[in-house]
Design brief:
Elements (H helix, E strand, L loop, with lengths): L8 E6 L14 H15 L4 E6 L7 H4 L6 H25 L4 E5 L8 E2 L2 H9 L3 E5 L9 H11 L4 E6 L4 E2 L11 E2 L1 E3 H6 L7 H9 L4 E5 L5 H7 L5 E4 L3
Parallel strand pairs: 1-2, 1-6, 2-5, 3-4, 3-5, 6-10, 9-11
Antiparallel strand pairs: 7-8, 10-11
Helix pairs in contact: 1-3, 1-8, 5-7
Length: 241
């Protein structure tokens, strides 16, 4: 029996590192294909899907800033890295038969559409997956903040944060054996405990607009479909926890 989705419209936030697989840099085609298949499975449930993908697998602006490159330039370079990832995901999704559009906050009309809110919503209503690239288009803002902003603008029912671990922990579970995993959290708890799931401005924006955040591992098979149907292992961040 087909599973029933809990949400009508979702935004999936992926880190650039999540596309590397076992590599140290760049894109891993099998990983890209697996994630595209997961997105297709959710899309076939009738869920409207949009994505924001980071660029850390290619260039991380905040790491380069202050060392060799001025911060504003470094952030713009990071935004361009997100466009590369968006185009790669678009190609992989379309090879799976999913119509996809890339919209960039920095206009580059030769390769993708500019970000236009009403056009993006229309694409999703027509059954297309929309990938938002180049963050907010402004330096000093992360792709986490861009994801929260686009989720609010698109009227999404939830922001799905695909990470390297299966939820939010009190510490890094890779280095702290006694780190506690949370099933649910209030926005305020995430901010007051300084839990490193998303940056503070993204959490505050989601709280202000009552957009719940579901944090799950993108590496677990069928994890995206599980998150959309409310099953599987994840942490839910919402008002009241």
């Amino acid at each position: 029996m087909p599973r029933k989705p809990k949400y009508r419209r979702v935004l999936l936030k992926l880190s650039g590192e999540g596309l590397m697989g076992e590599r140290d840099y760049g894109l891993d085609p099998p990983t890209l294909e697996r994630i595209a298949l997961e997105v297709r499975a959710v899309h076939e449930m009738g869920v409207e899907v949009c994505l924001v993908i980071g660029g850390g697998n290619i260039f991380r602006g905040i790491s380069a800033a202050g060392v060799t490159i001025e911060r504003t330039s470094a952030d713009y370079m990071g935004m361009l890295a997100t466009v590369i990832n968006a185009l790669a995901m678009q190609s992989m999704l379309e090879s799976q038969g999913v119509q996809t559009r890339v919209q960039s906050a920095i206009p580059m009309s030769m390769i993708c559409e500019p970000y236009i809110r009403r056009r993006a919503m229309r694409h999703m209503e027509k059954g297309r997956v929309v990938i938002f690239a180049a963050g907010t288009g402004n330096p000093f803002f992360t792709t986490d903040t861009a994801a929260a902003l686009r989720a609010v603008e698109m009227g999404c029912d939830v922001l799905l944060k695909g990470t390297q671990v299966d939820g939010v922990y009190s510490g890094d579970p890779k280095h702290e054996k006694d780190a506690k995993r949370f099933d649910s959290l209030d926005y305020h708890e995430v901010l007051s405990q300084d839990l490193k799931v998303m940056d503070a401005s993204a959490i505050a924006l989601a709280r202000e607009n009552k957009v719940p955040i579901v944090v799950f591992s993108i590496h677990n098979p069928h994890a995206l479909a599980d998150a959309v149907t409310g099953s599987g292992t994840f942490t839910l961040i919402c008002e009241g926890g």
